[in-house]
Structure formats: structure tokens, C-alpha cells
Known about the structure:
Blueprint: H1 2-21, E1 39-44, E2 56-59, E3 65-67, E4 79-84, E5 91-96, E6 100-102, E7 108-112, E8 122-127, E9 130-134, E10 140-142, E11 155-160, E12 162-165, E13 179-184
Antiparallel strand pairs: 1-4, 2-3, 2-12, 4-11, 5-10, 5-13, 6-7, 7-12, 8-9, 8-11
Amino acid sequence: MKKTVKILIAAVFAVAFGSLANAQSASISANATVISEISVTTQANLEFGTVVVGQTKSIDGLGSIDVSSGPTLGSSQLGRFLIEAQKGSNVQLTFALPTNLSTTGGALLPISFGPGVSAKSAIVELRPGYQTEFTPSVPYQISGFLNSAEPTDRYIQVSIGGKVDATSATAGSYTGIITLSAIYN
């Protein structure tokens, strides 16, 4: 019995050391690509200017102004954002949009964006002279952000217009917040 146990132990050691003699190894590399953070900055507020009670006033993504009736008063301008991201990356733009502008007293002025407001209520200018229209209430995907064929500039401009409806508004100064978020995906 002792002899059998010794033979069995010797066999286990032989297999174990034999396996060690035949050990294999492999290597992998650890890699990372670091890209710049996305930067979104405000260039200009969306300004409807003066709107007369009873009017609707819209500004499309190219800055064209339309009023439902009466005079076009005050100076108006598109809302504009500037986005900087890594060249060639995929970036998604998402707006948080108000449904009303309000006064400090709580009066509301309806505001709308997208289809029915204007065919061009939001514009992405990927490079001078090359603009793409999109609906700001739907996330917009930029594939190949300023791809390698583009100029060295890593910025794009996003413009947004909208429509305010003062048909049953009260006189006052109204304001609301429009937020543009940009993320890599």
C-alpha cells in the first residue's frame, strides 16, 4: 500500500512538473485614444424683438422673420451655439426646449420649434456654405464631426429659431431657457 501511494505521488509530481515544462504564454497590449472634451458655448440668444399682442412671430434657422399680421418691430436674431469636438468623432446634439416663455409675474407666452414653425428651425453649419437643417425637438446625429476632409477648424455653429404666439398674451417682458447638449457616441 505504501508503495502504491509513493508511485501515485510520484506520478502526480511528474504530471505537474511536466505541465510546467510545457507552459505557454501570450501578451496583449493595452491601448487608449484620448480625445478632447466637447465644448458648447453660447454665441447669441434667440431674440424675437417686439411682438404685438395678437401676432405670432417666427424666426427660421437662417434668420428670416415672419409675422402673422401687422408690423415687424424691434431687432430679432437667431439663437446660436458654438460646438468644439474631436475631429472625425460622432456627436449627438439634443435640445431642452421650453414650451412657454414667462414674465416675472408668471404670465406665459407659448413658444414652439420645429415642423410647423419653419422648414428650417435649426441649422448646423458644418463649414462655411454647408448647412444642414434639423428639427430641434429630435436628437441630431453628426457622423464624422468635421471629418479629415474638412478644414483644420474643430468648431461648428448651431443656429435655432422658433415661433412665439402672442395672440392672447399680456404685455410684458418674457424669457425662457434653451439648452443645447452635445455628447460623443
